[in-house]
Each structure stands twice: as structure tokens, then as C-alpha cells.
Amino acid sequence: ETGVTQTPRHLVMGMTNKKSLKCEQHLGHNAMYWYKQSAKKPLELMFVYSLEERVENNSVPSRFSPECPNSSHLFLHLHTLQPEDSALYLCASSQDLSGVGYEQFFGPGTRLTVL
Amino acid sequence: QKEVEQDPGPLSVPEGAIVSLNCTYSNSAFQYFMWYRQYSRKGPELLMYTYSSGNKEDGRFTAQVDKSSKYISLFIRDSQPSDSATYLCAMSSGTYKYIFGTGTRLKVLA
After folding, report:
1. pLDDT band at A100 (very low <50, low <70, confident <90, very high)
2. Which residues on neighbouring strands pair with residue A32, listed in sequence order?
3. Can you give the pLDDT at residue A101?
4. Model pLDDT, residue A99
5. What is the pLDDT of residues B15-42, one digit of tens each?
6. Closest residue in chain B to residue A33, using alpha carbons only
């Protein structure tokens, strides 16, 4: 595997379900991100981790819960979602948070549909 | 006013045309400017990365930054049907906080 991988690629869930999205980066990067991409809207930054520590929670509702067990893996735990949470959820990684080498590389995303 | 403005398109051009994609921005602190390409059902892929003003060329792609006008452009020469995608501009003052445009959908017709 190369780059940033995400599983599952598609997920349909009811509002009472609990599910998790998984991201893995094979680039040796120190920082990982969760973004939400909705139709006709700019990418919205949700969470940022650097060396497994959360450095950003961009006013995301508590029904989204991130977890970063090590610098290669990132999870997004989902619970009691709303239909408006349906979107493409993208994971990204970068070498560092700022300065040279902080370009962000994205995974293919998980297309989430909440019924 | 949005921090970054980008025409959503769609923009349709014939194969071989020169394509010009643009973004305007309001925050003069932005120093880093990126262009991503996103194919349908895929994640964004970094195409070009420019620091401060000036031009950068990579094959058929040229990125241009005019900080005095707060305007960035991506030119695609000899466009191909495989260039059909959504192009996202993104910018940053030097941290991980990228501000993205909404994306321009491009269709190159064979």
C-alpha cells in the first residue's frame, strides 16, 4: 500500500448506529487530518493530530469522535449521526504542521450516507 | 465575503484548448498556494504548490500567483479528456490551516 488509504470507501448507516472510519498513511508523516467535503462547499477541517496529540477540534459535534493510536493510523468514530452529516470524509497527512514539507496528501475518502 | 472565491463551473472546453482556472482571496497573510485535482469518487491530489508570488511550471501545468491583486491561476496547456476533474485551490499563511475554494469542475471534450 502506498500513500494514504481509507476504509471503508462507502458506508450507509442509520441515525442510531455506531460505526468507525479508518485511515492509514504509509508516508512516514507526523500529522494527520480529518476533513468533511459536502457538495458545493469548501473542504471543512474537522480534526488535526500531530504525533498522536490532537491539536485542533474545529467545533465539531461530539457525535464525531477521533482517535489516533499512533502516527500512522487515524480513526473517526461515528455515533447518532444526522442526515446532514452525509458527505465525503477525507483523511490527509503531512510531514509536519508548518514550514517546509507540510503539504497535505489526501486519501480517497469514505462516502457516508446517513439514513 | 468568503476568504477564497472560486467559480464552480462547470467549464467545458475542447481537447487541446488552453484552460485557465482562477481563485481570488481576501487574506493578505496567505503565502502558500496550492492546486489540487479531484477526480470523481477520489480524494484531492496535489498538483502544484507555490510559495509567495510568481510562476511555477510543471509539464502542461503552470501556476501563477499575483499577491498584489490577491489572484491565483492555474493554466493547463493542450488539455486532454483525462484532465476532466474538479480543481481546488487552497491557501495558507504557513500553517496546516488550509483555506479551500469550492472547486471548479472542468470537462475537456474529445
Report:
1. low
2. A49, A93
3. 56
4. 66
5. 999 999 999 999 999 999 999 999 998 8
6. B96
- The closest alpha carbon to A18, from A75, A70, A84, belongs to A75
Could you please report the per-residue DSSP string of A4-73? Answer: EEEE-SEEEE-TT-EEEEEEEE-S--SEEEEEEE-TTS--EEEEEEETTEEEEE-S--TTEEEEEEETTE
Q: Identify the sign of the CA torsion A6, A26, B35, A49.
A: positive
Facing residue for B42 by CB, picked from A31, A33, A108 = A108
**Which residues on A lie below 8 Å from B25 (Cβ)?**
none
Contact B108, B80 (CB under 8 A): yes
Confidence bin at A2 (pLDDT 50/70/90): confident
Cell of B34: 496550492
Whose cell is 458506508? That residue is A11
Answer whether residue B1 shows pLDDT above 80: no
DSSP state of B81: G
d(CA B93, CA B96): 9
